[in-house]
TrEMBL record:
Coiled coil (residue ranges): none
Repeat as UniProt keyword: no
Protein name: Crp/Fnr family transcriptional regulator
Domain HTH crp-type residues, every copy: 152-222
SUPFAM superfamilies according to UniProt: cAMP-binding domain-like (SSF51206), Winged helix' DNA-binding domain (SSF46785)
Signal peptide coordinates: none
Domain Cyclic nucleotide-binding: start-end pairs: 18-138
Domain of life, per lineage: Bacteria
Taxonomic path: Bacteria, Pseudomonadati, Bacteroidota, Flavobacteriia, Flavobacteriales
Length: 234
């Protein structure tokens, strides 16, 4: 990883939480304090349990956040792309990161230190209110994920994951625009790699999906949705 300065005002990422608030005059004081960090694919930029070093905003790229579960196994808890915030769990209430994070491809991150974030939250009410709404939305998603684990079987969880990444990353040339290994799919769906492979193979035989290497393409969105319709999570 390497660091470099970048100017937020010339950034083309309109989904960025910071960019959306640059119209506020007070934000000018804080933009110069942030750092841009360039990560290569597979680089870890947050270590679970490490001292909190502020929040990360994805300028360009994709990343996964993980949490250590039973027997030291890492569970994927979130997939992120342009404009998403990383490292917010524990911010303000903990001195250490509650998750780890890895780049899924070459990724550019914007980092605002603990001190800078605290200054923004204390002096820019509109930004603080928007961040509060973001936290509320994330809490709702976390509660839904708990319900999924309790009520969905393994096939339904894999289908739910495929529909989720289809919505979040889109599909180009018939393939979802993210590379995930079978192990990563299994981790996020809360199952074993062997089960994930069997389910993907079954969905492929049923002509519901196609695969090319690590890429998966959804052929029948409506049919996959109908399988988890009763859960209302798609």
């Amino acid at each position: 990883m390497k660091e470099e300065q970048a100017v937020c005002y010339s950034c083309t990422n309109e989904n960025c939480f910071i960019k959306k608030h640059l119209h506020l005059e007070q934000m000018t004081n804080y933009i110069s304090k942030k750092q841009n960090i360039i990560c290569k694919k597979s680089d870890q930029f947050i270590t679970e349990g490490a001292p909190l070093q502020g929040l990360y905003f994805i300028c360009k790229g994709k990343a996964k956040t993980v949490k250590t579960g039973i027997n030291g196994r890492e569970q994927i808890v979130r997939l992120t792309t342009n404009g998403d915030i990383i490292g917010f769990r524990g911010f303000g209430t903990s001195k250490r990161y509650l998750i780890g994070a890895y780049a899924l491809e070459d990724t550019v991150l914007c980092n605002f230190s603990n001190e800078t974030m605290q200054e923004i939250l204390q002096h820019v009410p509109e930004f603080t209110y928007a961040l509060m709404l973001f936290y509320a939305e994330e809490l709702n998603k976390s509660e839904n994920n708990i319900r999924k684990i309790a009520h969905m079987n393994v096939r339904e969880r894999v289908i739910d994951l495929l529909l989720y990444i289809h919505r979040k990353f889109g599909q180009t040339n018939g393939l979802i625009d993210i590379e995930l290994s079978r192990k990563e799919i299994a981790d996020f769906a809360g199952t074993t790699e062997e089960q994930a492979i069997r389910i993907l193979s079954s969905l492929k035989k049923e002509s519901l999906i196609k695969t090319e290497g690590k890429r998966v393409g959804i052929l029948e969105v409506s049919e996959l949705r109908s399988e988890i319709m009763e859960h209302k999570y798609f």
